[in-house]
Amino acid sequence: MSPILPTTTVGSLPKPSWLAQPETLWSPWRLEGPELIEGKQDALRIAVKEQSDRGIDIVSDGEQTRQHFVTTFIEHLDGVDFEQRETVRIRNRYDASVPTVVGAVSREKPVFVDDATFLRQQTDKPIKWALPGPMTMIDTLYDRHYSSREALAWEFAAILNQEARDLEAAGVDIIQFDEPAFNVYFAELKDWGVAALERAVEGLRAETAVHICYGYGIKANTDWKASLGSEWRHYEESFPLLQQSGIDIISLESHNSRVPIDLVGLLRGKKVMLGAIDVASEKVETPEEVADTLRSALEFVDADKLLPSTNCGMAPLSRDVALAKLSALSAGTRLVREELVTSHA
Ligand SMILES: [Zn+2]
User: Fold this and answer.
1) How far, in Å, from the CA of 318 to the mean position of ligand 1?
2) Do 290 and 276 touch, CB atoms closer than 8 A?
């Protein structure tokens, strides 16, 4: 059984430099063929060991087998042409060259199930697997076939549900959907965004999570954050809808952000995966800083529903810093656990 305040991460960790160029998004692999397969598995083993050794209770694959949290999933689907690339503006923030939807999208076979099975074999701890959410997927594509963001999102939701059921069968305990787009497209969020996400989790027995954030610590995101003013109230749009939804866990960014912590109160009854580690800074948090963030959240969420986590994925950080941040997360959580035990004694 997990301890109170089980620690976890949003998902990605830096890859070893022998596998892919460090501190780079969409970093090209440095191995190929059978060596690449072996290298990805070795990196995944290391990611699991580092998380376990550093006191992370709910373990992820560190996304060691994927180049990118959205595109690697899409690459395995039919109906998307990776040779036909178009430049689009991602979440209204930065331009990226993305593949084109040229026909009906479908999943011929499971995408991550072999990797998840391998992760399951590496640890007895609960495991969490991240998939992109439907709205974030359509925002990372150029669509020439459906001509409707909503229609394409429903197709992806059905595909994600197939994948999630297969991950559940492979022994994944928590299936997480990454929806940073929920902090940007509020009209769509209300029209069909949360509904599409609920379609993706339909019929699952595994716990489900949605991660909504202000993005990786890359320049386009930090520039955007600098323009958002003194209070970031974006979660006010999604949280009331998610509180009414069938999603079990809501993951948000907190430490070093300008998100008013009382917004956590909008999620009453849900589990809250709280970002107590800043992924946009190389500065490693002290245990006391982590503990302060958790304490402030505990005014708005019950202790048995709080999961200390990172603000977002740590893929773009240097490896040493990311690993030190895992240790800080555990150490800060331990401080608060001790206080909770003392106060209930
Ligand atoms: Zn994120």
Assistant:
1) 17
2) yes
Predicted pLDDT of residue 345: 61
Neighbours of 15 (CB within 10 A): 29
- Ligand 1: centre distance to CA 10 (Å): 7
Domain borders along the chain are 33-343
What spacing in Å lies between the alpha carbon of 27 and ligand 1's midpoint? 18
Of 37, 54, 66, 52, residue with least CA distance to 129: 66
CA distance 264 to 267: 6
CA of 335 from ligand 1 middle (Å) equals: 26
Whole-number Å distance, alpha carbon 178 to ligand 1 midpoint, is: 7
What distance in angstroms lies between residue 137's CA and the mean position of ligand 1's atoms? Answer: 14
Q: Residue 1 pLDDT more than 90?
A: no
Fold of 33-343: TIM Barrel (3.20.20)
Q: Measuring CA to CA, which residue among 281, 275, 317, 278 is closest to residue 294?
A: 275
Alpha-carbon distances of 243 from 101, 265, 294, 307, rounded to whole Å: 33, 10, 20, 16
Query: Model's pTM, two decimal places?
Result: 0.96
Cα separation, 107 vs 154, in Å, equals 14
The string of pLDDT tens digits covering residues 131-188 is: 999 999 999 899 999 999 999 999 999 999 999 999 999 999 999 999 999 999 999 9
- C-alpha 254/C-alpha 61 separation (Å) is 23
* CA 33 / ligand 1 centre spacing (Å): 30
Distance 273 CA to ligand 1 centre (A): 12
